[in-house]
Amino acid sequence: MKKEIIQTDNAPKAIGPYSQAIRTDALVYTAGQVGLDPATMELVEGGIEGQTRQVLTNLRSVLEAAGSSLEHVMKTTVFLKDMNDFAKMNTIYAEFFGANPPARSTIAVAGLPKGGLVEIEAVALIA
Could you tell me the CATH number of the domain that includes residue 17? Predict the structure, then answer.
């Protein structure tokens, strides 16, 4: 099985020793994305809604660079700083994944990189 490192300038650069994603022959495994603007590497404004929208935009960019898309996501893991933000995050998440969303786990965490409110990682099929 082949292992390919995925990197795109359309998503934030890795802020540690990791890859934005790894592509194999059939799957893409993404690193978690937080709500960073790729141009400034700063968290976007707009609270949980703004950050969730940016996270999913970043995730879409990484998946597209790997030859996949949000439509091919099989599983996501959502990390929330505050589980009270679940409903707001869920509303934005539904806008991106539509009628046939992937399997998902949502976990409350003590903290996220750069002080983010939400982080999402995904496993997707190659389109």
Answer: 3.30.1330.40
